[in-house]
Structures are given as C-alpha cells and as structure tokens.
Design goal:
The chain is α/β, with parallel strands linked by helices. The protein has 21 helices and 22 strands. The strands form six sheets. It has a seven-stranded mixed beta sheet, sandwiched between helices. The longest helix is centred in the middle third of the chain and has 22 residues. The radius of gyration is 27 Å and the shape is globular.
C-alpha cells in the first residue's frame, strides 16, 4: 500500500514526527519562526501540550517529563534558547530517562527578531547533539531520530530549524504513531541532583558521550556524501544544501544532518577527494572553523560573509561569478509595518508623545511604535528588559530623568520576564513608571493564549492571572487601570504616575483589535482643515490626499481616537452623518 503524503510546513512536519515518535508532553513559549510546531502539537489528543510563561519554564517542564519517563519536547526561537539556557546546560549533565528534544528556530536576516545569533554554538557550548533538517520530510525524520538518539545517548538533543525550513512546504510521508511505553520513574540523586560533588562525576560522562557520538557520526546516514564533479566539494547543511544544489548542481557535496558534533573523519575523506573544499553555512562560520582546526584547508565565510540569509542567486554570484539579477521594484517606496487600525497600544503612545516622555520599550507589537510618526520608543533590548533599563537610566541620570521616562511592555512579556524586574525596582526604591499594555493575548506571534487571557492552548477556560493583584503583591502602591481608547484619561494617568516618588504601574487594558469583535461604525471626515493632527496617530486607515485627510472606511476599526484629537471636530462616526 502506497504511503500517504501531505504537503507540510517544516514546523508541521516536526510536530508530525514528534507525534509518530510517541511524544507525551510538549511545553513551549511562542516565538517566530518556531510557534507553529507547538500549535500543531496541540491538535494531537495523545499529547499533553501547553504554553509556558517563558522558555526557561518550558524547558524545565519538558525535562521533568523526560526524567519521569515520558518523551517530551520544547520549542523556541533562537533568542528563547538564551532564556532556557540555564536548565538546558545542566540537563546535558544529568541526562534524561525518556527522550527530550529541544527545537530551536534561528532567524537569518532577522525577519522577526532582534539579533542573528547562531544556535549551533549552544550545542557546542552545552555538549548537546544538534540535528539540522533540509526539508519538511527531514524535519519529520530527524525529529524521530532525535528522540532515539536522546534515549540511546542519555542526553537532550537539539533540532535546529531556520526560517526558510520552518516556513517552507514540501511533501512528507505520513507514518503511524509508535507505541512507546512510559518508562518507570526511578529515584537517582547521583544522576539528577546537580550538587557540585555529583556534577563533577557527571561531567566526564558528558565528554565521553560526545566522543562516542563524534565517532558514530562518521557512519550516520544523515551525513551524506554526494560525489559529482571533483573540482569543487561543498560541505553544507539545512537550507543551504538546497541553495547549493540549485546554484552548483554539478558540485560534489557533503550534506551534514548532524551539525554537532561533526563527523571529522568523513569530512577529511571527502576533502581528500576534491580539489577545492568550500563550506557553505548561514550566520557564523562554525563548521568552517572546526574543519580548519582539524588541519583541513577550506574556504567559506571569505566568500559569503556572516550576515543575513544566503540564496541561490548569492551563491551563483560568489561561487560561479554570475552577475546578480537586478531586484524588481527597487524604486518602490518602503512599506514599514504599522500598528493595526484600532490597536489599543496607539492611544498609549500618542499620550506618551503628548507628554514628551522617553520610552524604554520591550518585545511585542508595540515595538512598532518606534517608527515614525509615533517615534515613541528609545530602546528595545530583549523580553522583559524595559523595567530594568528604566531603573538603570534613573540610577545614571537621576530622578528628574526618570520622571520623564516610562517602561512599556505587554501582558505576556510582563509574565515572561518582567515580574522579577518589577520586584527589583520596588526593592531598590526606584522612581519609575511602568505601563503594562494588557491586550489579553500574545499578539505579535499570532494570538497565543497566556496566563492573563483566561484560556489554555486549546482555547479552553483556564485560571486567569489578575495582573493588578500581582503588581500589588510585588509591593507597588500606585496602580492605575485605564482604557487606552480614552486619550484624556490615559494622558492624565501618565502625568500623575510620573510625578510620584515611587514605582507606579499603569495597566492599559483593552483587547487586541484583531480579536475584539465589538461592532463599530467607521468614522468619516467632514470639513477637514488639513492640520494633520490625526496623522500623528499613525493609523493606517487615515490617509492624506493632497492637503486634506480622508478615512478609509474599509480599514477603519471605529475606535474613535482620531475624533478625540481633531481640533476642528471634523471627524464623526458614520452613523452621525
């Protein structure tokens, strides 16, 4: 009987592979380009699937499940590995009982990220094996293999994706779910309690395991030599393998499926069979450096550089001397992303601008407020950093500066890593104002639930975190709740909070515009004077036509903020006309 095939995203295929591998527990925090893996896993009734409050917690849940005998997975984007690094590094020492897989999705070219870090270095630093698939079929197959290696070698295993693999579709052969028995729980303090005396004994185990896998890698089928023209041999992996095959179809290739540890004997043998050895890899030159350190001559980053994504065209240019194609539409105006029509965040940033406040920002949709015409963000570093940055700025510049500065972050980001920063600010008696944009969802990654939304990953009712009570329990005395659609009230709350001699918190509460189904009539402009006051809201529905302004009824969400800022009262609700 012919095996069923489906067209799948790489992320979908990872989920399919985990299900077929008998996965029992999945815990993740959403982060593009990894989010769909966990969303797909939530559709399998055999798997317990949950959103965690951050990646560290997710990794700890996955480790607990694996230690207790059930196969587990945790998925995150590359910067999420930073957050989860603490438990991951030590899990390499303890090992696991059942298989534990860590899916990390890197983002070359930073399509939706604040840096271009290369997660392969985490595998190297933590001494954890890392597999890298090159298409959706391999996403499924490598995930299943990762569970097998995890249990065989007693270690967590990384599966590394990149944006192009995670979000590209290709055919996948569908298999059946394996009946993997739950392993009995065994108490073993010497293995799992990482006090210094125990950890010192586990470290040599990690080193021996790595040597064993490095030797085993030379014979693994996922590391594949494809001999063609021997004038050029290319060592590559993941999406880069696809680029190489298109750009130089006659070149010999060594396709690596295991990118850490490397199969050095296989690489050396391949190098001896070709005249010129080139390493093609995105981001850092990790593989190139390892090969050179082994005394094997090769080229790589001197040709491709370390920034951004590679492509077929770029490889044809640097490897074959082809002329780059002229980009179509290079004379078109840029189209930067903007906050959605009716976004509740817009009202907060408009009020912030009215008061001339500096903004220590955070990761979320609201980061877009950094762009003109709002231009209402001074810094954005990482998840939860806004409060700490505001406190640090106060310590450097004094209280007069902090009275003109606010820390802005979303509800999901506050839960992720802002709570401890707020406690720290109160404990150290800072004079800062924190604005929590509570739209009751994790917005930028596609509307995933969080502890403040009152629903779980399956959209079923769940205990709802009371943010104001949590803030109060952190020691904050001055707490205000405002509707950001009410611009006057929002401005007054900001003015009062920034004048106080203590930590103040404003909770700007209104649902995300894309989820709020409240019926509202679009607004219209009757008698525009061309002053441009409404344009300062940066609403996509407000369009300038010559000297005057019109509202695009097809885009208008009916929030009414524009009506509040028009000095000539020329903006009216459509039903009033």
């Amino acid at each position: 009987m012919e095996q069923e095939k489906r067209l799948m995203l790489g992320n979908e295929a990872v989920a399919q592979g985990a299900w077929e591998a008998g996965l029992r527990v999945a815990a993740s925090y959403p982060g593009t380009p990894s989010t769909e893996v966990t969303e797909c896993l939530s559709k399998y009734p055999e798997i317990h699937c949950q959103w965690a409050s951050n990646e560290k917690v997710a990794a700890e849940v996955a480790f607990g499940a694996a230690m207790a005998g059930g196969r587990s997975i945790t998925c995150m984007k590359h910067v999420g590995v930073n957050v989860a690094a603490d438990p991951i590094f030590t899990a390499a020492y303890t090992g696991v009982s059942a298989g534990m897989v860590i899916v990390c999705a890197d983002d070359p070219a930073m399509h939706s990220s604040q840096n271009e870090q290369d997660s392969r270095y985490y595998a190297r630093a933590a001494h954890i094996p890392m597999l890298e698939p090159a298409d959706s079929q391999e996403c499924k197959d490598f995930t299943k293999l990762a569970f097998e290696l995890s249990e065989e070698l007693d270690t967590p295993v990384f599966v590394r994706l990149t944006t192009r693999i995670a979000h590209a579709r290709s055919a996948v052969s569908i298999g059946q779910r394996q009946d993997i028995a739950l392993k009995p729980y065994e108490k073993n303090a010497m293995k799992y309690v990482m006090m210094p005396a125990m950890a010192r004994k586990r470290h040599p185990v990690v080193e021996e395991r790595e040597k064993l896998l490095a030797q085993k890698a030379n014979c693994m089928a996922i590391n594949r030599v494809e001999m063609r023209d021997t004038r050029v041999g290319i060592v590559t992996s993941g999406a880069c393998y696809q680029y190489v095959r298109d750009a130089m179809p006659d070149a010999s290739t060594l396709k690596l499926g295991l990118v850490y540890p490397l199969p050095m004997e296989l690489i050396a043998n391949f190098a001896a069979r070709v005249d010129r050895l080139i390493v093609i890899e995105e981001l850092e030159g990790l593989i190139e450096r390892e090969i050179k350190a082994a005394g094997i001559g090769c080229e790589g980053k001197n040709l491709t550089g370390v920034q951004g994504e590679l492509s077929v065209e770029k490889l044809r240019t640097v490897l074959c001397g082809a002329q780059p194609c002229a980009a179509a539409g290079t004379d078109l105006p840029v189209r930067p992303p903007v906050l959605c029509p009716g976004c509740p965040h817009r009202g907060v940033f408009y009020a912030i601008n009215r008061l001339g406040l500096s903004v220590m920002g955070d990761i979320g949709c609201y980061t877009l407020a950094a762009l003109a015409p709002l231009s209402a963000m001074d810094a954005c570093l990482c998840m939860g950093a806004s409060i700490g940055m505001a406190g640090g700025a106060e310590r450097a510049q004094g209280k007069d500066f902090s009275r003109k500065t606010v820390a802005v972050l979303g509800d999901s980001t506050f839960i992720h890593s802002g709570i401890t920063s707020l406690i720290d600010a109160v404990y150290n008696q800072e004079t800062i104002t924190v604005v929590i944009l509570d739209n009751r969802i994790t917005g930028m990654t596609g509307h995933q639930q969080n502890p403040a939304s009152g629903k779980d990953i399956h959209n079923q009712p769940a205990p709802q975190l009371n943010i104001e009570k949590l803030v109060e329990s952190c020691g904050v005395n001055d707490i205000a709740i405002v509707d950001p659609f009410d611009l006057k009230a929002t401005e007054e709350a900001l003015r009062a909070a920034t004048a106080r001699e203590e930590v103040s918190v404003i909770i700007a509460r209104r649902p995300c515009a894309l989820l709020d189904k409240t019926p509202r009539k679009p607004y219209v402009i009757d008698g525009c004077k061309g002053c441009g006051a409404c344009m300062k809201l940066s609403c996509p529905a407000i369009e300038r036509h010559g000297k005057l302004v019109q509202i695009n009824a097809a885009l208008c969400n009916g929030c009414g903020m524009c009506r509040q800022v028009c000095p000539f009262k020329a903006i009216k609700c459509g039903e009033e006309c």
